[in-house]
Amino acid sequence: MPTLAANLKAFQGLKTDLFEKDFLLTWEHPEEELRAIITLADTLKTLHKQGKSFRAFDTGLAISIFRDNSTRTRFSFASAANAMGLGLSDLDEEKSQVAHGETVRETANMISFLTEVIGIRDDMFLGEGHTYMKEVGDALTDGANHDVLHRRPSIINLQCDVDHPTQAMADLAWLKEHFGSLEALKGKKIAMTWAYSPSYGKPLSVPQGIIGLMTRFGMDLRLAHPEGYDLIPEVVALAGKQALKSGGKFSVSNSMDEAFKGADIVYPKSWAPYHVMERRTELLKTSDQAGLKQLEKECLANNAKHKDWECTRAKMDLTAEKKALYMHCLPADITDVSCKAGEVSAEVFEQYRIPTYQEAAYKPFIISALMFLTRLKDPGAKLEQIIKRSQNLSL
Amino acid sequence: MPTLAANLKAFQGLKTDLFEKDFLLTWEHPEEELRAIITLADTLKTLHKQGKSFRAFDTGLAISIFRDNSTRTRFSFASAANAMGLGLSDLDEEKSQVAHGETVRETANMISFLTEVIGIRDDMFLGEGHTYMKEVGDALTDGANHDVLHRRPSIINLQCDVDHPTQAMADLAWLKEHFGSLEALKGKKIAMTWAYSPSYGKPLSVPQGIIGLMTRFGMDLRLAHPEGYDLIPEVVALAGKQALKSGGKFSVSNSMDEAFKGADIVYPKSWAPYHVMERRTELLKTSDQAGLKQLEKECLANNAKHKDWECTRAKMDLTAEKKALYMHCLPADITDVSCKAGEVSAEVFEQYRIPTYQEAAYKPFIISALMFLTRLKDPGAKLEQIIKRSQNLSL
Amino acid sequence: MPTLAANLKAFQGLKTDLFEKDFLLTWEHPEEELRAIITLADTLKTLHKQGKSFRAFDTGLAISIFRDNSTRTRFSFASAANAMGLGLSDLDEEKSQVAHGETVRETANMISFLTEVIGIRDDMFLGEGHTYMKEVGDALTDGANHDVLHRRPSIINLQCDVDHPTQAMADLAWLKEHFGSLEALKGKKIAMTWAYSPSYGKPLSVPQGIIGLMTRFGMDLRLAHPEGYDLIPEVVALAGKQALKSGGKFSVSNSMDEAFKGADIVYPKSWAPYHVMERRTELLKTSDQAGLKQLEKECLANNAKHKDWECTRAKMDLTAEKKALYMHCLPADITDVSCKAGEVSAEVFEQYRIPTYQEAAYKPFIISALMFLTRLKDPGAKLEQIIKRSQNLSL
Predict the structure, then answer these.
(1) What own/partner pairs with CB < 8 Å and gap ≥ 24 does A291-297 have?
(2) Where do the structural domains in chain A lie, given as residue ranges?
(3) Which of A337, A360, A364 sits opposite C114 (nearest CB)?
């Protein structure tokens, strides 16, 4: 890993324009900005490993809004806020409520008078999560323009219906560490595949986040899923365009084996088909419990046809030198451990358990980096100050 | 807005006696103290606008006890605690439980060993909220006298059955900003009126807080409500006395139009009649669900007779130059937006939406000022130190 | 109470080996370490009384996991974390869920990337709580060994099925204050007795914690309970051995009177019999509601036979000079106050109410001391620095 000094120099050489902005979809941000985030996250991780504080604020609030359950992202956000010197407050809504309009506009302002960052998870409703975040953002801009808010807080997307950018960026940071550099990722074959799970209704945001991000770094991305398990078409189209531009490749198939063949990285993960999530959103909106039960039944039956989409030893043997890097956002559905039949065999998971933890370890630092970049006018100068301070500290 | 230096000088010239005291009802405090709170809140708001920290503590706990739902006051309290440097902990009781006696005495001490401030909302039960806060306060005094507590924490009333002092003080700070000074409020006509709402059982503490506070600053206060929608008689009597003493006026009528005529400020807001809240408390105490259903039915039917108590364009046209300042503690029941028929028309609310947000923006700073004054022995010296520190800080 | 300087010198003279370790059972730690914890807690309490901060960290997370209700321990942990400079995050599991294996291993790591301390209460299931804490600890060690965690967080047992070490240590600190020194406890007669309560299923950890700790300081410990109300046999055996080694005494009887006769200290407290808690654990594991109802019924009937196990004035008159120190972990079941018939009469409780509060007051400082000792490499040097700093601070 580069020294703090080298990291600082690299970071100061990268241009970012995130001050008082939001971070909702990775593809809305130039590659240089993403490199800056990764470089900063690496630097903060190094500081933490050395036992040095990277606190950047004296006070200030970080608010989390979780419209779906979360453990690891919740604690990543809490950890990042704390490390930055921000206090954490959770806005505890009814989880299933889709509030819009006046309420969103008003609440966004009412909670933000002394707030720096708002982290939002809203991934339950296809067509809703991203829209909701934009609405909150517009309300904050409106409040700041009218001097209701002294400073416009920044929104960090902690998973929506379209993207899961802190996950995808943590994954990228982990790939950078594993392969040595972002440049080393060029040409690497990554299989983002569907996998069987006994549950249904898992969001599309992880696979979409992966194809929407990794195609920008020259990787050979193979998306694979059973027929009918499509992702949002716009994101798939975007991934194709990005791969072309970055000198990478992007293909979609209905064969797990094909995707795994010769792969350097595999990311087998269950999700619900796009059109199912659309129907589900409509049913949830009208609280149609019978309809939801029926949909779940259909889906589980459909899933059950694809139990062979499991990441087994045999599947891993198809990959490059039979030892592709296995990735997962966790928790994985592990066959014979967390369920009878799942996304991955116990043997394969156990072999890669520690690497998946190391993958996850990046998330709090990615979120810290996003807080740093969205709230500080001159992040390069501040980072320099923090690194200098850290060298004078003794425990 | 005055400079920080002018504000500091003004603040240091005002005498306060709040150290380790509670803030439960505005009328228990001399006018000079209220002026000091407003001046300090203004100063802290200016510091925040300049991006300067006004942190006053290294560590310490601020506890919130919400015996009723809250979003904006909850976040105001959280923001203030964080800005002051205090950690926030929420005591999560059963919301509807009316605990008294031994339990209150013991719990008050058990949560307070390292606690600086306790914020309490208890507005559901007429005759209970204020009593509960006094009980907690007595227990804390007892604990401090017996050296159980090294320091007696201060209680901040975040809304009780009698007063909503942080709301009323934020409203006063906003009026001061809007009209230029507290002196400019002398003679201003303010209509505190009931308004129609499709819900029932709204607390009396906001209108009571307004008539209990604004009558002390020489205003011409017109309280208006339909027959039978009385406030607690003692508070109404107090408002009359205070108006007399401050050179203001205080009148009660059953006509919204009369109150609005020539008004400089209007505050149309729904509440439940005093005697209904008394009956409701009895029913809630005995968990008489049938009785509660019946009372709600009666009340809603009664309310429905007064749908014309809505703040419409026509009503606003009765006010001074047709453009009185519209105020509300939020959220308002907005006709055709949050309900079919409500307290205010969509047109009037939208016109005054931003001003109501600016009104709300004062609450975290009022609460910060209360924490500052109740916990610091020499608040004038501390504020001077904070302002000096802020001028040497660079981001 | 000794001066800060004397305390510091005493503390620096005591050897501890707690850095990055857990604190699960007092009897796993040498007496010297327990003395260091008590000395440090005293010192931090003195600092707080003087209005001085003993903050030791800039940032860092303290996580609490409460698998059972708690008010006083919850706030003690929150207060300690805040005083140390750590941010608090609560992991909110389903309270009755007994998670094991993969989930524990993964979750322990996922919440710990920037975490210093994890406080756990898990006292509902005999045979489970301590086991769970060990499992979490093993997972953290595994994570630290594989560089998933930069530092291994420390676990503080906030009550398990076997011990309640922060309670027992707070009790010991209070006894030290009350009698002047730990040496003064030698030969003191302490009656740890069962007492009647109208509830059932109260954990065994408090009496076990008391007999497991106080027998190490040369006390004459008399355990008394009705026939059949046994504690875990291993802990009883351990208490006996420890008493022998420390020059104290340990006896078990079925007579409250016998235990009280000539006692210097009495600790009457209800608990459920060992074998009942075993049956209860089995029933809870299988969610056997009917079985649980039946067990509760049997137990309450059994308890009711022992209503005379109440700490009354007459019972107190049996103690040394009729004025033994009454202790309780609170809340007590007080006859005619919190229930019709309980552990203690209203008169006796009221007489000793303030002393029980003073007993409780030690808990946040014990937990602070544990955080200090488990997270700082050179706690002696850090304490010296904090005391010096405190002498230059002005408010």
Answers:
(1) A296/A200, A296/A201
(2) 4-163+363-392, 169-360
(3) A364
